[in-house]
Prior knowledge:
The longest helix is centred in the C-terminal third of the chain and has 20 residues. Helix 4 crosses helix 5. It contains nine helices and eight strands. By secondary structure, the chain is an alpha/beta fold. The site of pyridoxal-5'-phosphate (PLP) has 13 residues, from strand 8 and helix 9.
Amino acid sequence: MSTVEDNLYLVHKRIIDAELRFRxxxxxxxxxxxxxxxPVERLQALIAAGHRAFGENYLQxxxxxxxxxxxxxLEWHFIGKIQSNKTAAIARQFQWVHSVCxxxxxxxxxxxxxxxxPPLNICIEVNTSGESSKSGIRAEEVxxxxxxxxxxxxxxxxxxxxxxAHTTDFAAQRASFHSLRALFDKMQQANIPVDTLSMGMxxxxxxxxxxxxxxxxxxxALFGKRSLAE
Length: 230
Ligand SMILES: *Cc1c(COP(=O)(O)O)cnc(C)c1O
């Protein structure tokens, strides 16, 4: 087995162990392999092992990989900062966008999504740490953006995404994820049809699963250190 295949096995095992430990139903947590900064050979090793969902942060890098991997039916997740001049290509080439923070970006994605394709799956990125350097909108702004998003053709609001401020403290990780989960619960109570909590990366996905994550975005634990320039 290649290292990448070994890592895939180990990450699946960590997910299953966390599901059991925190009394989650098995199979509720989807794994997206974050392949930014990784050469295409590493993606091919995961594909050979049966993996299909990949997350990318940079449009041009993603497009190069999509072209090489065009023969395989893959699911592409855009998870990076969205520049407005990239929205048309993102709306055409990805199945998911996790990093929507403004209604302007949402409207541009909606307008550009080809009607022949199923709706583009959208998560609103929330800044849970309150740090102004981090991307994402404040929790107080989420409802108004969500109500606008559900009206837009070509988009399907799926849920929320957050990137935690870096900490290795498990209790602190859980506390941050818990606040996102609470917001998600409020949306469901308000009958906003969301089903996805995109939270958890290599260093914190067990804490995210403990707090109800349904989708983890894992890079380095699968691929090792990123080798391409970011
Ligand atoms: C890079 C990145 C990840 C993966 O991070 P790792 O620590 O390598 O697992 C997940 N989500 C987002 C939004 C990222 O930019």
